[in-house]
Amino acid sequence: MLVRFNVGNFLSFKEVQEFSLIKGKTKSKSDRIVDADKLKLLKFAAIFGANASGKSNLISSFKYAQTAIIRGIPKKGKILPFKLDASYANKPSYFEFEILINNDSYAYGFEILLGKNQIISEWLIQLSPTGNDKIIFSRDIVNGKFQSDLRITSTALKNKFNVYSDDSKNNTEILFLNEMNRAKNELYKEKNELTIFKDVFEWFENRLDVNYPNRPISDYSYFRDATNKDEVCRIISCLGTGITNYEEKKSSLEQLQQQLPKVVYEQLEEDINEWKIAKKNEIKVLSISIRINDMYYVISMGKDDELEVATIVFNHGNDAIFDFSEESDGTRRILDLIEILFSGESKVYIIDEIDRSLHPQLTYKFIQEFLTAAKKRNIQLVITTHESRLLDFGLLRQDEIWIANKALNGATEMYSLDEYNVRFDKKVDKAYLEGRYGGVPIFSTIFPVKEDDKL
Fold first, then answer.
1. Other Cβ atoms within 10 Å of 387 Cβ, number
2. CA Rg, the chain, in Å?
3. Helix H segments across 357-449?
4. Which among 22, 24, 18 has a CA at the least distance from the CA of 6?
5. Regarding beta strands 401-406 and 44-48, do their DSSP bridges make them parallel or antiparallel, or are they unpaired?
6. Beta bridge partners of residue 297, listed in sequence order
7. What is the pLDDT at residue 454?
8. Mapping DSSP to helix (H, G, I), strand (E, B) and coil, where does residue 211 land?
9. pLDDT band at residue 369, thresholds of 50, 70 and 90?
10. How far apart are CA 361 and CA 390, in angstroms?
């Protein structure tokens, strides 16, 4: 699970800002707190703020760091340090996650010169409540130093680790966590002292799910689990979509080929060939979902290596069948989001502008459904939103409400409403819109009123 995240000198973030999911002073709604040894964690946080306050930049910082860890430092696109102070152009940008894996806390982070795409430091530390932290590894690339407190019992394994660490001392192009997970399946075939590198990497790869408004969140796998069908129908219905039932409809590769660009279809054929090889090697093969022109398809491999292509169609209380593309934008958005309610343990969703295309009451109802589901499972959801109706102490805890505010120097500041001594009976949405906590637009007068007009 995510404990906290720190970012500095990235887009609108100047000095390092901390976003935390550690429980605050609030005592209400304790049934949705994760009690992990000496850590008590929130399962939900909503970030409010004006346009250009930096809410989306926080999501971008999550995504940038995740991409750098899993796929390597992004070379395409213009990612900038804080631009409003020229002296920050040559200062390192800072990213650090504190995460919880098997009830143990780890801090993983790195510093990078964004203008040159050069990593200058990186670290992975097992944190201890008593302060006896264990350095899994730490590298200072500028000075060519590498440190590790790992005690590796196997001589062969220790020699391998020494080779890997020596090779990384001066490597500014790749993160060591990534390097320790590149074509090293044999290294982790049996659990050993280096397995933590695999566990941390897989947390970023499989547990952290970062989403932008224009990206489909779901692969709709929840539709394919027959045991979920009644609950899925209940949720879809209670969210006011008008949908009463759904069913799987067979399709074909030929239909896909007609809609897909040639390059994309050729890539799909390559994936299919890899699936066949993986199946021969008894490697688990997952299905793949494709969204095309407001339709989506699920492609999987059957028992006899035959490809199965399907989509989902919907009923609205009668015999009429509706394709995915025939549903409204709001309904498609909800169908995307519902996957979160059926996600596995320890999944962390980060979603920018969750209220896009949704009616305010629908956004409120979805958050209610998530908070109910979160009581039974350790899942986390972090959202950005403009929907002030969520600023309701009947729905949220004070420490679940965060504000992104633009300071006078143009830098984003992050803080929790838990820092304010707010009464639980206060109309917090009204106070927020009045600017009591920051994070709301401050407008200049576009058409100034003349003195004569006041008469």
1. 21
2. 24
3. 360-374, 428-433
4. 18
5. parallel
6. 290
7. 43
8. strand
9. very high
10. 9
Whole-angstrom distance, CA of residue 86 vs CA of residue 63: 25
CATH number for the segment(s) 1-215+347-455 = 3.40.50.300
pTM: predicted TM-score of the whole model, two decimal places: 0.86
CA distance 435 to 137: 45
Between helices 229-238 and 360-374, what is the axis angle to 10°? 150
The per-residue pLDDT for 58 is 96
Q: Are 450 and 426 in contact (CB under 8 A)?
A: no
Give me the residues paired with residue 46 across strands: 383, 401
CB 168 within 8 A of CB 146: yes
Instruction: Please state the φ and ψ torsions of residue 342, each to the nearest 5 degrees.
Output: -115, 15
In 3-state terms, what secondary structure has residue 402?
A: strand
Residue 16 is encoded by which pair of tokens?
């390092």
Residues in the chain, overall count: 455
Q: Which residues does residue 112 pair with via DSSP β-bridges, in sequence order?
A: 93, 119
Position 317 scores a pLDDT of 82
Express each pLDDT in 195-213 by its tens digit: 999 999 999 999 999 998 7
Q: Which tokens is 146 given? A: 């590498």
Q: Residues with Cβ < 8 Å from 392, sequence gap 6 or more? A: 364, 428, 429
Query: What letter would DSSP give residue 391?
Result: -
- Give the list of residues 6+ apart from residue 288 with CB closer than 8 angstroms, or none: 219, 268, 271, 298, 299, 300
Other C-beta atoms closer than 10 Å to the C-beta of 26 total 21
Q: 278 in helix, strand or coil?
A: helix
Given a contact cutoff of 8 angstroms between Cβ atoms, the answer to whether 8 and 112 are in contact is no
Kindly tell me the burial class for residue 203, based on how many C-beta atoms sit within 10 Å of its own C-beta (0-12, 13-18, 19 or more).
buried
pLDDT mean over 95-102? 95
Specify whether the CB–CB gap between 403 and 49 falls below 8 A.
yes
User: In this structure, which amino acid lies at residue 47?
Assistant: I
Q: What's the mean pLDDT in 162-185?
A: 92
Q: Strands, E, within 326-398: which ranges?
A: 348-351, 380-384
Q: Can you read off the two tokens belonging to residue 98?
A: 């504190």
What token pair was written down for 380? 């986390």
> Distance between CA 197 and CA 177 in Å, rounded?
6
Question: Which run of H or E residues covers position 422?
Answer: none
Q: Are 422 and 439 in contact (CB under 8 A)?
A: no
